[in-house]
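Researcher: Please generate the 3D structure of the following complex. Treat every line as part of one assembly.
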Amino acid sequence: MNEPSPPSLGFLLRNAYAALAEHVYGQLPDRGFPEIRRAHSSLLRHIAPGGSRLTELAAAAGMAKQSMAYLADDLTALGMLEAVPDPRDGRARLLRLTARGRKLYETLVALSAEAESRLEAELGATGIAALRHGLTQTIARFPPGLG
Amino acid sequence: MNEPSPPSLGFLLRNAYAALAEHVYGQLPDRGFPEIRRAHSSLLRHIAPGGSRLTELAAAAGMAKQSMAYLADDLTALGMLEAVPDPRDGRARLLRLTARGRKLYETLVALSAEAESRLEAELGATGIAALRHGLTQTIARFPPGLG
DNA sequence: TCTGGTTAGTCAGATTGCCTGACTTCTATT
DNA sequence: AATAGAAGTCAGGCAATCTGACTAACCAGA
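Model: Done. Output below.
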């Protein structure tokens, strides 16, 4: 009931992420992508234009390949992703966006940009830059696997 | 493999939160609280000194009371929390921190403060203020349940 | 004072988003 | 060839939520 006078940075970060994600992903149903969930972004954010391997995507997102496989299966079932054999390695498949998947990707980019420019109207260009810088430094200063 | 030139704000927010949370919660085992997980913060952040009701905590954290009950059971089993009947309402229980729970709470506050001051050394007081302001505005500008 | 609506919490069950371990298949190196 | 390692699959598990249905208790009004 009583949030301590200055809310902790962790609290702010968590809620800011939740608010922004809700804003962006909450609009997807209206844009024709009702089945896309937040978790899918772990794949969508990292997929290369020419296609990517499952293992690459898992490494880029920092998750187990089994977890990425689950997301890939999902997006494939939704018609956003297709898998073709990698001609350079018989074990591997290349995952790439279908036409509809590219549309989804572009929609997400556009919604993100719209949200950011809305925020920029509030904070100004310097404010946004400071926010980005602060976040980037937070990531850099607290690397995974350190005390 | 190729993070697009400016990483999206969502990406930054998610990773900054993850990095900070990992930093803080990763130190808890060394501080004598090996069983505390991130989810517990949803309860710990909102509990009042004199004790809080389950329903209050759930509302403050924005989650279902059943979910908060799960966290409360957990913290109770770990000896951090105890429940006493609310003298003012026979249906309700007051949840409050035990001595060990208060120690945990103080440890979390200290670790948070330490992390923030480390970041302040990097960003300066103005940088931290700008970061906080940006996050606060993000939360305010993208309220739950809106397009 | 009974009664009906509301609130506090519990019970049961489901889902999402991850995880680990064990395995197969293929590649590449020796 | 033989074998080590990498790509991906299969099976299973767990954490952190959710919804729906319920009981017990409180409270306001007839």
